[in-house]
C-alpha cells in the first residue's frame, strides 16, 4: 500500500491533546459556576471559594495524570 | 541547566528535553561517578535549605514578638494567619481549626518553599518534581486523616466513611466506589497533582529555553524566533509562580477537607 502521508514522532503528544479536552471543559465549568454564583450573591464569595479550589484540583488532576502517563508510556 | 547550556554551546543541540533532565548529578565528594551515586544531589541540598530557611525564618521573626510588629514579624504572622483563618478555621470550624492550624501552616510553607525552587535563578528545578517528595507528604496526610477519623469515631469510622445514606440496593455499587475514592485515589491524587504540576512547569521552561537554543542553531529564518521563545520563558516563569502558590494552597485545603470529612458527625 502506498503511503500518502507519514508523520514521525510520539503519539503521546496527540494522546495528551485528546486527554486535555475533558479537564479543560471541566475546569471551565467550575470557574463559570463560581463566577455566576458570585455575581448572583457577592457575599457568598468567601464561603464558596475553598470548594471552588477543591473542585478545580479534583478535575485538574485528570489533565496532570495525562502528562505523567504520557511520559511513562511514551515508548 | 548549566550542564545543558555547555553542551549546547559546543554545537550539539540537546533536543527535545526528556525525563532524564530531571536527574541531577551527584555532588557528594565521594563516589564521583555521577548518576550511579544519586544520594546527595542538588535536589537534596534544596530540601535541606528549605527546611533550614523555614525554621530560621519563623524562629527569628517570632523571637521578640511585639505588639506593633516589625516587617518580618508581620509577614510571618500573615502567613500563619492566612492558613489558620482562611484554611483551617474556614474548613474545620473554630475548635478543630485552631488545633490543626500548626500542621497545616507547616505543610503550606514547606510545599510553597519547595515549589519555589522551581523559579529561583540558578536552581530552577523544584524538588517536588521528583515524586518521592509529594508521595511522602501525601502519605502523611493519609495517615493523619485516617488516624483522626478512628480517634473520633472508633472502628465506626470506616462505616461512617464507606456507607452513605442511600437505598440498600444501591450500596453494593456505592461502597466499592466510596472505598476506591477515599482510601486509594485520595493519597495517589494528592501526590500526583503536586508532582505533575512541578514536573510540567519545569518541562515547559525547558522546552522554551532549549527550543530557543535549538532554533538559533538551526537556520537564519528561525534564529529571530528564538528570542520570542526566550521571552515566552520569562512569561511562563510568572505563570509558574501562580501555579506554585496555587498548588501549595490546594494541597493544604485538600488535607484540611479530608480531615474535616473524618471529623464530621454523620452525613
What would you note in describing this structure?
- The complex is a heterodimer of chains A (75) and B (267).
- With 75 residues, chain A is an all-alpha fold.
- Chain A has a domain at 23-72.
- Helix content of chain A is 75%, strand content 0%.
- Chain A is built from three helices and no strands.
- Chain A has helices spanning 12-19, 21-40, 45-72.
- In chain A, helix 1 (12-19) packs antiparallel against helix 3 (45-72) and helix 2 packs antiparallel against helix 3 (45-72).
- The longest helix of chain A is centred in the last third of the chain and has 28 residues, at 45-72.
- Chain A starts with 11 loop residues before the first helix and ends with a helix.
- The mean pLDDT of chain A is 88.
- Chain B is mainly α and 267 residues long.
- Chain B has one domain (2-263).
- Chain B has helices at residues 2-9, 42-61, 71-92, 94-116, 132-153, 156-162, 171-218, 223-263.
- In chain B, helix 5 packs parallel to helix 8.
- The termini of chain B are far apart.
- The interface between A and B is medium-sized, with 13 and 19 residues.
Helix content of chain A: over 70%
Distance between the termini of chain A: 26 Å
Oligomer: heterodimer
Order of helices and strands of chain A: HHH
Largest interface: A-B, 13 and 19 residues
Strand percentage of chain B lies at: under 5%
What is the rounded Rg of chain B? 23 Å
- SSE class of chain B: mainly alpha
Q: Number of helix segments of chain A?
A: 3
What pattern of helices and strands is seen along the backbone of chain B?
HHHHHHHH
Supply Rg of chain A. Answer: 19 Å
Write the layout of secondary structure elements.
The complex is a heterodimer of chains A (75) and B (267).
Chain A: H1 12-19, H2 21-40, H3 45-72
Helix pairs in contact in A: 1-3, 2-3
Chain B: H1 2-9, H2 42-61, H3 71-92, H4 94-116, H5 132-153, H6 156-162, H7 171-218, H8 223-263
Amino acid at each position: 500500500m502506498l503511503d500518502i502521508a507519514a508523520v514521525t514522532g510520539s503519539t503521546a503528544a496527540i494522546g495528551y491533546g485528546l486527554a486535555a479536552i475533558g479537564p479543560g471543559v471541566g475546569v471551565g465549568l467550575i470557574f463559570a459556576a463560581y463566577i455566576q454564583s458570585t455575581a448572583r450573591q457577592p457575599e457568598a464569595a468567601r464561603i464558596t471559594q475553598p470548594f471552588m479550589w477543591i473542585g478545580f484540583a479534583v478535575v485538574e488532576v485528570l489533565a496532570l495524570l495525562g502528562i505523567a502517563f504520557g511520559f511513562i508510556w511514551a515508548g | 541547566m548549566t550542564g545543558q547550556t555547555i553542551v549546547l554551546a559546543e554545537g550539539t543541540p540537546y533536543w527535545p528535553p526528556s525525563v532524564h533532565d530531571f536527574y541531577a548529578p551527584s555532588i557528594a565528594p565521594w563516589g564521583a561517578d555521577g548518576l550511579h551515586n544519586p544520594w546527595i544531589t542538588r535536589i537534596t541540598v534544596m530540601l535541606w535549605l528549605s527546611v533550614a530557611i523555614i525554621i530560621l525564618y519563623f524562629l527569628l521573626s517570632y523571637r521578640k514578638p511585639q505588639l506593633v510588629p516589625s516587617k518580618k514579624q508581620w509577614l510571618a504572622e500573615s502567613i500563619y494567619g492566612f492558613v489558620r483563618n482562611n484554611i483551617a478555621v474556614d474548613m474545620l470550624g473554630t475548635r478543630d481549626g485552631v488545633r490543626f492550624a500548626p500542621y497545616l501552616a507547616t505543610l503550606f510553607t514547606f510545599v510553597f518553599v519547595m515549589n519555589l525552587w522551581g523559579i529561583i535563578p540558578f536552581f530552577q528545578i523544584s524538588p517536588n518534581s521528583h515524586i518521592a517528595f509529594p508521595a511522602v507528604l501525601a502519605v502523611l496526610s493519609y495517615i493523619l486523616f485516617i488516624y483522626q477519623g478512628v480517634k473520633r469515631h472508633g472502628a465506626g469510622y470506616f462505616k461512617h466513611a464507606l456507607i452513605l445514606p442511600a437505598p440498600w440496593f444501591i450500596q453494593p455499587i456505592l461502597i466499592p466506589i466510596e472505598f476506591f475514592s477515599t482510601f486509594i485515589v485520595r493519597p495517589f491524587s494528592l501526590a500526583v497533582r503536586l508532582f505533575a504540576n512541578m514536573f510540567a512547569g519545569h518541562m515547559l521552561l525547558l522546552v522554551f529555553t532549549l527550543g530557543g537554543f535549538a532554533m538559533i542553531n538551526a537556520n537564519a529564518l528561525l534564529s529571530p524566533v528564538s528570542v520570542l521563545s526566550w521571552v515566552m520563558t520569562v512569561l511562563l516563569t510568572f505563570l509558574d509562580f501562580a501555579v506554585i502558590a496555587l498548588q501549595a494552597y490546594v494541597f493544604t485545603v485538600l488535607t484540611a477537607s479530608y480531615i474535616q470529612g473524618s471529623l464530621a458527625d454523620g452525613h
